[in-house]
Amino acid sequence: MGWRQPMWIVVVGLVVSIAGCEGDSSIQPTLAPSTLTWRELPAAPTKRTEVAAAAIGTQILVAGGYRADGATVATVEVFDTASQTWQRGPDLPAPVNHAMAATVAGAVMVFGGYDNAGNPSAGATRLSGTTWLSIAPMPEPRAAGAAAAVGTRVYIAGGIGSGKVLADHMLVYDTALNSWSTAPGPPTAREHLGGTAFGGRVFTVGGRTKAGNLDSFEVFDPAAGAWSALPPMPTPRGGMAAAATCSGWIVAVGGEAQSTFPEVEAFDTRAGRWQTLPKLPTPRHGLGVVTVGSTVYTLAGGPRPGLYVADTNEAIELAGLGPCA
User: Fold this and answer.
1) Which positions ≥6 away from 35 have C-beta within 8 Å?
2) Cα dihedral sign for 51, 320, 218, 198?
3) pTM for the model
4) How confident is the model at residue 186, as a pLDDT?
5) pLDDT tens digits for 149-160?
């Protein structure tokens, strides 16, 4: 029996107070090492890197990316966190790598990415049942950025845009109107960054430019239309990903430089400071990082810099860091 998209999803959108860069930005020791432990989960059916990932209910979709021979694929695989099983999902309309994905009101959407020819794409699609439907294309191409959903809008931040240069503004998709607008970009233009949303705000973390990896950590308030700087990520890195837990931790995972990064670092939006977490057992870049409740899942990615692929699926339960908001 084929995969069926769930018909419901619980969306948490509470606004919390976030300390600014004047707060205590000290890095704290690893929290409760005896209770925070990574566990290995069933491997994905195929090995990929530079994927896009998003969760809907208890299911995580892992879309697109590269396979070992360098081919860009349209493959979608679905991991059910409740049954701990994988199923094949419906292929994307076109192969893409370095795409961005987000979930809004029970619908998974995939944006942009590089096409087979290595050009940034402006394509946008939404999963309806078992069919991908075209939605309004982005006003300009975008790849290797980050997508974050706040309310009915998806914010595409950072990445490579028109002319294959660093994007200096965000693209904003209104799911209710099926239309696009723009908003100020992160103060630090970069690609291969992590991005997520919590408490009605968009967070961008890490990334890289031609000059190297960055520790930049910035937050956008859609209500004010303005960005603010937050304490920098302890370990500068690009090629990583980030996700927010239901309790308000922004978790940054993976990345690459001369080797892949095992570092996992989490920002406490209540205390306004970073904490170190247990290292990723299988360091990777180009991976999908998704939270379901208080559990962080890391899927696929490259175990070494360059074109290497993995089917690795690892998770860590962070309920010990605090209850869901």
Assistant:
1) 320
2) positive
3) 0.90
4) 98
5) 999 999 999 999
In Å, how far are 8, 50, 77, 184, 284 from 64, measured between CA atoms?
Answer: 24, 8, 9, 28, 17
173-228: pLDDT as tens digits? 999 999 999 999 999 999 999 999 999 999 999 999 999 999 999 999 999 999 99
Task: State how beta strands 52-56 and 59-63 pair.
Answer: antiparallel
In the three-class reduction of DSSP (H, G, I as helix; E, B as strand; rest coil), residue 215 is classed as: coil
Nearest Cα to Cα of residue 72 among 116, 107, 37? 116
Adjacency order of strands within the sheet including 153-157 = 146-150, 153-157, 169-174, 179-184
| 265 token code pair | 């670092």
Cα separations (Å) of 127 from 63, 108, 166, 195?
A: 11, 6, 28, 21
Q: What is the phi/psi pair of residue 119, to 5°?
A: -100, 140
The helix (run of H) or strand (run of E) holding residue 208 is strand 208-209
Instruction: Check pLDDT > 90 for residue 29.
Output: no
Report the pLDDT value the prediction gives residue 3, as an integer from 0 to 100. Answer: 56
* Domains present along the chain, CATH in parentheses: 47-318 (2.120.10.80)
Taking residues 249-256, what's their average pLDDT?
A: 98
The CA-atom distances, in angstroms, between 173 and each of 144, 148, 165, 170, 198 are 17, 10, 21, 10, 17
Q: Is the pLDDT of residue 23 over 90?
A: no
**CB–CB of 157/144 below 8 Å?**
no
- Matching residue, tokens 């930049």: 216
Angle made by CA atoms 321, 105, 222, in degrees to the nearest 5: 70
Amino acid (one-letter) located at 271 = A
The per-residue pLDDT for 11 is: 30
